[in-house]
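Progress narrative, Year 2. Work on ABC transporter ATP-binding protein from Comamonas piscis advanced from sequence curation to structure prediction during this period.
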Amino acid sequence: MNPPSPLLVTGLSVGYRQRQVIDQLQLPLLQPGQVTALVGPNGAGKTSLLKALAGLVPARGCLQLGSTALHALRPAQRAQYVGYMPQFAAEGVALTVLESLLAALRSQSSQRNPSDAPASATPIERVHALLQQLGIAHLALLPLDSLSGGQRQLVSLAQSVIREPAILLLDEPTSALDLRHQALVMGTARMLAQQGRIVIAVLHDLNLAARWADALIVLRRGSLYTSGSPVQTLTPAMLAEVYGVQARVQSCTQGWLQIVVDGTTAGDPP
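Result:
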């Protein structure tokens, strides 16, 4: 079995309606085994970047996963390598949790050559194993529309990872969740990264990013402002220049950082 490959992103450009959102973006090498948080103010291009990586919006540039040129693949082919968790789950889907995951597996098998299909486990066994791993096996027979917001997020995470992608993209996975479900979702994302995946999550809560991410990519106006570990990136100077806030960055007794915002900076927001 080959070791997991990092993801190289160079020269990435995304535009909508003749407006350039991201222009010639080059990211640091995105490593397997890590949770990378995409952060930045509203309108910085975080979701556009995530959708471009997933192949959901037109984009130019190079996306290279080991020897595989993802940018050259059709969307259905790229989906074999990339799992995408949208910010909002689809409403009105008349399926149970189990049925929705089996449908995702059937979609995968229709794109693969039969000789490439794994023979070790049946689809039912794969789904039940994943639900057990995520701690939501008790939800298997429930309709999607009957789930709470936190349960829907965990099921959406399962839907994005059931195909066993090398890259997992999470768009605001903790939005509108209570503290317990935020910890469950981010803890699960970290567990999935530790299995050798590249996990990239858009996060607005910088304290969550400081707690759960191994690396941060800070975007500003569609460009890379800085990147690195939480200690390297989450500084008062960055928070003032990128977010327009006066803030203190403190170390918790557990070892991670905590940001305390005291007010806004003078002048127009960034």
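The first helix runs from residue 46 to 54. The two ends are 46 Å apart (CA to CA).
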